[in-house]
Design brief:
By secondary structure, the chain is an alpha+beta fold. Helix content is about 25%, strand content about 35%. It has helices at about 10-20, 60-65, 80-90; strands at about 5-10, 25-30, 35-40, 50-55, 75, 95, 100, 105-110, 115-120.
């Protein structure tokens, strides 16, 4: 089982505001470790959680928003495409294309506030 995926964000609190306050995800952990925090969030319904990480080196800072180049790194699945799309936009996400229908379902590419690329996936 893939338990966590690390995602660089500009700050722990900014990450929590976007994912928890904005998207309605659950904060699973927020543990102060002295020089950093262990912060994990998960979407409704569970699944793999994100470890929100703040860049600690110059190299990590350069990777903020581009951990996978210009590729989609994360795929968020929803039963209510339009409502989730509206929530992402209201929280500060930005859609890069209008939704389109593919054989596997409805899809649209979007960026979180740090520039990480996602696909929103809905039922066909």
């Amino acid at each position: 089982m893939l338990r966590h995926v690390t995602l660089l964000v500009s700050g722990y609190d900014a990450g929590l505001r976007f994912f928890v306050d904005g998207l309605g995800w659950t904060c699973l952990d927020d543990i102060d470790q002295g020089r950093k925090r262990w912060v994990t969030v998960a979407p409704p319904g569970g699944g793999t959680s994100l470890v929100l990480a703040v860049p600690g080196t110059e190299s990590q800072q350069r990777a903020l928003g581009g951990q996978t180049g210009d590729r989609v790194a994360l795929f968020l699945e929803t039963d209510d495409f339009e409502a989730t799309q509206a929530r992402i936009t209201a929280a500060g996400g930005r859609f890069l294309e209008p939704p389109r229908d593919e054989a596997y379902g409805r899809v649209a590419q979007w960026c979180d506030p740090w520039g990480n690329r996602w696909d929103l996936l809905g039922p066909a």
